Amino acid sequence: MRRDGTNPDDVQPEDVLCDFCLEPAWALNRPCVEGHHGSIICGVCLSKAWVVVQCERDGEAPATCTMCLEDRDEPGWRGDTSAHICKRCIKQAAGAMHKSKDWDWTKPDCS
Ligand SMILES: [Zn+2]
Ligand SMILES: [Zn+2]
């Protein structure tokens, strides 16, 4: 998400916040994946989401996903905010982050 008051013609790294922890993911040079409507999840949040949903097979009740805007009938994860990410988006984002050569991000080990 963009920080309130961001100039759309001159977006600064500090203006780009993770929807799930509200930290400036770009300025911190964290890996991040974008969803619809400028939504963003950073690597730190994605790791937490992965552990809860993929490793512990737990998660929040289904809700409208901030990343894909769909209302999917599967558990998801919620960060420090009201943002919600569905299981499918967690898998997709993890795949993208894992593959990217720009970032040193690996899926958390469930064992
Ligand atoms: Zn985050
Ligand atoms: Zn989703």
Q: How many helices does DSSP assign?
A: 2
Please list the strands of the largest sheet in the order they lie side by side: 1-2
Strand content: 5-15%
Which whole number gives the mean pLDDT? Answer: 94
Task: Give a written overview of the molecule.
Strand 1 and strand 2 form a beta hairpin. The protein has helices spanning 43-55, 87-99; strands spanning 32-34, 40-42, 76-78, 84-86. The protein is globular. With 111 residues, the chain is α+β, with helices and mostly antiparallel strands. The chain has 2 helices and 4 strands; from the N terminus they run ββαββα. The chain has one domain (13-99). The strands form 2 sheets. The chain has a two-stranded antiparallel sheet. The protein has a two-stranded antiparallel ribbon with strand order 3-4. Helix 1 (43-55) packs across helix 2 (87-99). The chain binds zinc ion (2 copies).
Write the layout of secondary structure elements.
Blueprint: E1 32-34, E2 40-42, H1 43-55, E3 76-78, E4 84-86, H2 87-99
Antiparallel strand pairs: 1-2, 3-4
Residues 65, 67-68, 70, 85-86, 88-89 line the site of one zinc ion.
What keyword list fits this structure?
two-stranded antiparallel ribbon; two-stranded antiparallel sheet; 2 helices; 111 residues; alpha+beta
Outline of the structure:
The protein is of the alpha+beta class and 111 residues long. It is built from two helices and four strands; from the N terminus they run ββαββα.
